Amino acid sequence: MNTLDTIEVDITVELGAAIMPVHHLLRMGRGAVIELDTTENDPLRVYANNTLIARGEVKVEDGRLSVELTEKVRRPA
Q1: What is the DSSP-derived secondary structure letter of residue 76?
Q2: Bridge partners of 51?
């Protein structure tokens, strides 16, 4: 078995972010809208184990969502 096959990586795709007090969150009901800090044209952020690794955009094909990576984020040397 290849050693890399056993390594788990948590991948997170972030559409945007919002900061709000917990009491506002608790008062939200079904259908509530949370305004994010991005627009529809801004790239998504892709994280591996909480480290930003890439940016991308949402694709819809045959009713399925996917993320197309458009930019690899370089880590400082």
Answers
A1: P
A2: 48
Q: What backbone torsions phi and psi does residue 8 show, to the nearest 5 degrees?
A: -95, 135
Cross-strand pairs, 53: none
Whole-number Cα distances in Å, 67 to 21, 38, 59, 60 = 30, 17, 6, 9
Residue 57 CB burial class (10 angstroms; 0-12, 13-18, ≥19): middle
Distance in angstroms (rounded) separating the CA atoms of residues 55 and 46: 6
How crowded is residue 46: how many other Cβ atoms within 10 Å of its Cβ? 21
The model carries a pTM of 0.75
Q: What's the pLDDT score for residue 1? A: 59
Q: Quick one: tokens of 73? A: 């984020």
